[in-house]
Each structure stands twice: as structure tokens, then as C-alpha cells.
């Protein structure tokens, strides 16, 4: 098997791996392997050190282009806080699980228990999450509607 074919097969394997395990990184390495494969088909007598240097250089170039692309054209999402559980809690109503005394306690939100900071509140009180700081929910009392 020629070196060019090896690099093109490596590019194909990397591309398929990117599809199976998406992470938007292997695709850039696959592009570098494909470019190196085409170079090796055009210049089959290049020594292995030049092949690996070409692959390394093209990998760096492809990653830099990819980073620039994703910075200039960010991927839109219908749920931009999908992977930010803490940020998703802002505005949620939580129940005090361990009384908030001297500004700290614990609250329950759905099936999770979180450390909390806020005004003193008894166990069972309902509060609103207004921020999250270093994994601690900042809560405030819920304003009762005017009668």
C-alpha cells in the first residue's frame, strides 16, 4: 500500500470516528490526513519525516481555521444553556431543605440538593434562584402577590 493511500485511509477512519463520536475535533485532523495523502500521491518519494511534518503542519492549520470558523459563525442552539445546569436553575423556585441560617443552608430543586446562600428561611420555605456562584445557589424570598 502506498503512503498516499495510508494517509487517505487514516483520513477516512478519522472522519468516520468523528461521526460516531462527535466532538468537532477529529474532523480537522482528518482534513490534515487527507491533505497529506494527496501530497503523498503527488510526491510518493517523500520520506516519512516529511510526511509527519506535513501532517503536523496541516493539523495545526486546520485546527486554527476551525477555531476561527466557530468563533465567527457560532452554532445556534434552541437551548444554549443545555450543558450549564446551574445557569438553567436561575429563576427556578426551590424548596429549602436545610434551614438557611446566617446566610447559608441547602435547597432542593427537582431531584437535586444544592448548597444555598440567601436570607434566613425555615425548612420547607419556597425561594427563587437568582444566581449561582461557585456551585452555590443564591436565593431570595418570593414576593407574595398583592392582595
TrEMBL record:
On whether Transmembrane helix is a keyword of this UniProt record, the answer is yes
Please report the record's description of how this protein sits within the membrane: Multi-pass membrane protein
Where are its TM segments located?
A: 50-70
- What sequence ranges are listed for the domain NfeD-like C-terminal? 87-140
What are the GO cellular component annotations?
plasma membrane
Cellular location of this protein?
A: Membrane
- Provide this UniProt record's keywords sorted from A to Z: Membrane, Transmembrane, Transmembrane helix
InterPro entries registered for this protein in UniProt: Membrane_assoc_protease, NA-bd_OB-fold, NfeD-like_C
Q: What is this protein called?
A: NfeD family protein
Amino acid at each position: 500500500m502506498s503512503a498516499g493511500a495510508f494517509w487517505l485511509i487514516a483520513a477516512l477512519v478519522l472522519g468516520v470516528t468523528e461521526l460516531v463520536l462527535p466532538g468537532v475535533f477529529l474532523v480537522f485532523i482528518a482534513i490534515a490526513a487527507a491533505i497529506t495523502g494527496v501530497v503523498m500521491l503527488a510526491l510518493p518519494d517523500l520520506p516519512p519525516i516529511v510526511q509527519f511534518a506535513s501532517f503536523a503542519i496541516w493539523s495545526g492549520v486546520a485546527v486554527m481555521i476551525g477555531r476561527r470558523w466557530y468563533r465567527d459563525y457560532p452554532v445556534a442552539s434552541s437551548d444554549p444553556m443545555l450543558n450549564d445546569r446551574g445557569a438553567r436553575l436561575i429563576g427556578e423556585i426551590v424548596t429549602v431543605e436545610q434551614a438557611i441560617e446566617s446566610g447559608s443552608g441547602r435547597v432542593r430543586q427537582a431531584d437535586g440538593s444544592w448548597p444555598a446562600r440567601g436570607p434566613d428561611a425555615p425548612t420547607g420555605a419556597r425561594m427563587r434562584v437568582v444566581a449561582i456562584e461557585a456551585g452555590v445557589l443564591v436565593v431570595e424570598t418570593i414576593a407574595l402577590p398583592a392582595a
